[in-house]
Design goal:
The protein is mainly α. Helix content is 71%, strand content 0%. The protein has helices at 4-18, 22-29, 34-61, 64-78, 89-99, 104-108, 114-126, 131-145, 155-167, 175-197. The two termini are 13 Å apart.
C-alpha cells in the first residue's frame, strides 16, 4: 500500500526537482529570440493535443467518479473555459501563436523535433498502465505548472515572463499564458483530491 501523504509530498518534490534539471534550467536561461519562440509555440500546440490523448487514456480506465473529475478538467481544455471568454485551450494556443508570426498552417505542416516526438510517445505509453499510474503521470504536468507547488514559478508562469522580458510582448496580450497561469493552480488540486479519495490503491504488477 502507498502512504498517500508521503506520495503527495514526493510528487510535489519531483515537480520542484523538474525545474532544477539541466534541460529546464537551460531552457529558461536561453533567451527567446523570435525564431526560438516560433519553434517553441509550434511544439506547444502539439503538446496541447498530446495532453488530450493522455487525459483520455487516464479517463478511459478510471473509476466513474474520477471520469467525472477528468471530464470537468477536459471540458475547459476541449470546449470552453470561462476564464477565456468561453474559448477552448487549443484555440487560445493557436491565437497566441499568431502573435509570434505562426499560422495554423505552420503548425499543421511542422515537423516535430525527434526528442519532442519521443516524449509524446512516452506519455502515451504511460497512459496505458493502470488507471492511477496513468492519472498520476498526466497530472504531473499540472504539478510542474502550479505556482502553488513550485514557489519559484510554474512552467506556464515562467514561459509567460520570458515572452514578456525577451520579446517585449505585452503581458495582457498573452491570453493563453494568462489563462494557464490561473487555471493550472486549480488543475493541480485534482491530483491530490483523487489520490486522497483512492488512497487504498495497491500497485499491481
Amino acid at each position: 500500500m502507498y502512504k498517500v501523504d508521503a506520495l503527495i509530498e514526493r510528487i510535489k518534490t519531483m515537480a520542484n526537482e523538474h525545474h532544477q534539471t539541466p534541460e529546464i534550467r537551460y531552457l529558461f536561461a536561453t533567451r527567446f529570440t523570435p525564431a526560438r519562440a516560433r519553434a517553441w509555440t509550434i511544439h506547444q500546440a502539439y503538446f496541447v493535443r498530446n495532453r488530450r490523448d493522455c487525459w483520455a487514456l487516464a479517463m478511459g480506465q478510471a473509476p466513474l467518479d474520477v471520469k467525472r473529475e477528468i471530464w470537468l478538467h477536459e471540458k475547459e481544455e476541449l470546449i470552453s473555459d470561462p476564464r477565456a471568454a468561453g474559448e477552448d485551450h487549443y484555440t487560445l494556443t493557436t491565437k497566441e501563436a499568431k502573435l509570434l508570426g505562426v499560422s495554423e498552417a505552420d503548425i499543421d505542416q511542422a515537423e516535430l523535433h525527434p526528442f519532442v516526438a519521443a516524449a509524446f510517445e512516452a506519455w502515451l505509453h504511460l497512459g496505458k498502465k493502470t488507471w492511477l499510474e496513468s492519472f498520476v503521470a498526466v497530472s504531473m504536468v499540472e504539478a510542474i505548472n502550479s505556482n502553488t507547488i513550485v514557489p519559484t514559478g510554474g512552467f506556464s508562469y515562467r514561459a509567460r515572463e520570458r515572452l514578456v522580458s525577451d520579446l517585449g510582448i505585452a503581458r495582457e496580450s498573452l491570453t493563453n499564458r494568462n489563462v494557464h497561469v490561473e487555471a493550472d493552480q486549480e488543475h493541480a488540486l485534482l491530483l491530490e483530491t483523487i489520490l486522497r479519495r483512492h488512497g487504498g490503491w495497491r500497485r499491481q504488477n
